[in-house]
Amino acid sequence: MTLEELAAVGARAGGLLVARGQTLAVVDGATGGLMSAGLLAMPGASRFYSGGGIIYTLKGRRLILAHEPGALRGLTSATEEYALAQADLIRARYDADWGLAETGAAGPGVHPLGVPSGTSAIGVVGPDGLRAAITVRTGSEDRLSNMMAFAAAALTLLAGTVANAAH
Q1: Which of 22, 33, 115, 166 has the fewest other C-beta atoms within 10 Å?
Q2: 27: Cβ–Cβ under 8 A, 6 or more apart, which residues?
Q3: Where are the domains of the chain?
Q4: 32-46 pLDDT, tens per residue?
Q5: Does residue 110 register a pLDDT over 80?
């Protein structure tokens, strides 16, 4: 996948959000900012993109999500539950209609928690308690292709979830 192709997926999600007059906040993890880049490539992205950040450390997580101590206790990174919790927190942090979060292991090698390379969990949280999550497993050690695959899956999940949400 190219950045142009990723931007096309992001523009689909962005167009849906603009049409609804809704906003989005994003937590990039193993995607390293590619989810945000795919969304921000759309002209006029400020109409829907509230903000976000790349979370790569516990300190970064505390700073970006500004969560209460213990708010994520018992959750493990690179799981759907953790991605949904981060999506909830970033949504609240930016007072956005939607939250999107990705957490995973781009590789090469094994994640510090033992997660195999090519594994990503993605969560979307929206209005009225709407929640959607998926786990992506590429089976690849190729860091860049994994990052792109995770970002594409996340933006696809976002667009599909927003499209299927009640107006």
Answers
A1: 166
A2: 52, 53, 54, 55, 64, 65, 86, 87, 89, 90, 99, 100, 101, 102, 103
A3: 3-164
A4: 999 999 999 999 999
A5: no
